[in-house]
Amino acid sequence: MSGLPAERQPSLRRGLLVWLLLPLVVLIPLTTALIFGLTLRPALDALDRASTDTAVALSQIVEVRDGRASLPLSEQTARALRADLVDETMFAVGDGDGQLLGGSASLLKLAPRMQAGQWRFFEAKIDAKPIRVAAHGMQCGARADQVCAILVAETLGKRSAVERAALLAALSGALVLALPLVVLAMLAVNRAMRPLSRAAAEVELLTPDRLETIDVRGVPREVTPFVLALNRLFARLRAAAAAQRAFVSDAAHQLRTPLAVLRVEAAQALATPHAQELRPALERLHAAAERGARLVQQLLALARADGTALDPTQRPQALDLAHLAAQAADRWLQPSLEAGQDLGFDLEPAWVDGYPVLLEELLGNLVHNAIEHAGPGARITIRTRTEDGRARLCVEDDGRGVPADERELAWQRFRRGREAAGTGSGLGLAIVADIARLHDADATLEPGSQGRGLRVQVRFAPRAGHGTT
Amino acid sequence: MHILLVEDDSPLAESIATAMRSRGWRADVSARGEPVPASLLQDAYDALVLDIGLPGIDGLETLRRVREQGSYLPVLMLTARDGVEDRVLGLEWGADDYLVKPFALSELLARLRALVRRHELRRSETLVLSALRFDASARRACIAERAIQLSARECIVLQYLMLKTGQVVAREQLTALVPGWDAATSDNALEMLMSRLRGKIEPGGVRLRTVRGLGYLLEPAAPA
What we know:
- The structure holds two protein chains of two kinds.
- By secondary structure, chain A is of the alpha+beta class.
- In chain A, 51% of the residues lie in helices and 19% in strands.
- Chain A contains ten helices and 14 strands.
- Chain A has helices at residues 12-61, 75-82, 105-108, 157-205, 224-271, 279-308, 321-338, 356-374, 404-407, 428-438, and strands spanning 63-65, 68-70, 89-94, 100-103, 119-126, 129-139, 147-155, 317-320, 342-347, 351-354, 379-387, 390-397, 442-447, 454-459.
- In chain A, β13 (442-447) and β14 form a beta hairpin.
- In chain A, α1 packs antiparallel against α4 and α8 runs antiparallel to α10.
- Chain A starts with 11 loop residues before the first helix and ends in a 10-residue tail after the last strand.
- The model of chain A has no long low-confidence stretch (mean pLDDT 84).
- In chain B, β6 and β7 form a beta hairpin.
- The model of chain B has no long low-confidence stretch (mean pLDDT 88).
- A five-stranded parallel sheet of chain B has the order 2-1-3-4-5, sandwiched between helices.
- Chain A binds chain B through residues 249, 252-253, 256-265, 267-268, 271-272, 290, 293, 296-297, 300, 326, 329-330, 333-334, 337, 342-347, 356-357, 381, and chain B through 9, 11-12, 15-16, 18-19, 22, 53, 80-84, 100-106, 108, 166-168, 170, 209, 211-214, 217.
């Protein structure tokens, strides 16, 4: 799918990921907060309860005699009540009038107004140290408004530790939840998308040459309609190609027989005794018949080169260009002799995977061109080689050659050079180019050796599955 | 030469038959394949020219029936399609050669001559080209009844060249024929042999051409 504008286009993958991950982004912090709160609250309550225990213990020590409260507290008991591994602990007991009965005076100053039996918990500061205070109001006298204040305070060491532990628990819980969820979401999306990518890769592999039906098995049900539509399109294309091939074949059949009559009759007329003044006309007739036959052959070759790629019944086969060239000798020797030329061969094995009929046509066009254009007395050589694992076919002559500025144009259909003599259609090299392209070969025109004449080279791609030796 | 031509397109059949007759050949024409096996039994033909696209049974089926009745007559197939399939099928089913329409008259006649010549050798063991005559069983060649002296190797090479008249014969094919020759030494030796042979047979109205880089070609000195 490369080459498409990736932005702006809707993406299934992105959509799925957004809808899966967006809730996670909201829900996971919420869960973390919840875990944090739920673990912290009981722990803090437990710590407060430890303070209330001390306060209750102190309340048991307060004595009320004659309406006056006192705190008969030994130094040891006071130490025991203050004992704590982590925090600094302090207490204060004051009577109903706010007089200190025992403990820390500065703590007592923090005492809030309380009813008897009431508990208050709050945070405060003593000497700039944050503390947590548990305050208890206790009836300590005859009057109902005589309420002693009992305060127990401790620094926040244990509470901070508890908070840290709770935070750690909440965060690790969130992490344990979030990481697998994110990873799983991405994996799931990728997994769901994989058949799509596979189907895309399969379509990618198709070339105009091989429009094969894509296997629907393994393709997700949602994508099947697209694949089926593609397959139907391919089938239509194949049918169109088949119709074209059938047309070419029928046209060939229909055209070839009358042309054969024309050729045979023209040759026969020339060979039969005839009036001298008829001869130029008969020769023109014969030449036209030959030319027509060749043109039809070439047009059909072009159509066939275009259609072969789409014809699933035609597969390239292994063949030796040297063998092909040697076979062509019978066909081309006579015409070259008649043109007063020396047709020679220089053949070494050159194996390619190709379509024999088309390669014959390619070679035929090259040799025909050479015979037609090189002129009398020319030396034409057909050469085959294998170099660096690439087969090469070369037809060289030492004739007139083609001017440098016309060489590229020569490959176009119906293009004929300024100097062109003969009766060529201008199709020969176009056919060569088409057939070469079909075989992944490059065809080039260059001057022959010593800068004279013309050399047409066709270099084939290295054969698949064969080493470069 | 007596040829049976099976072609449903009557203008083409007439053209070919006329051209053959003007060269002194006998040519019978049939537009269908069905009567061919029977005709071959009635008349002594030298070759059968068979179009593949026929009404009724096609050329391939006709060929199958001809071969089925045990005839070894040389068969040249004509086809209007130059796909490989028709060719391969034709040759597999026992055709000796094929030509794609629109063929040149000269090529049709040359191919037929070559086919008949090969067939002749199987039957009578005598090969003829212009005034040159080669008796394969006696290993003797003569030009217009005058014997020419040939070495054993020259005999082998000449017989093969005469069988393949009008066709290019590769050097390797010739050297492989000659006993005692190996690939390393034979190129030069073959050239010398061919040049001697050329001197001996060319007075008989034949031409032994060298095809540069490939091999040799024996043909009548003046094209028919």
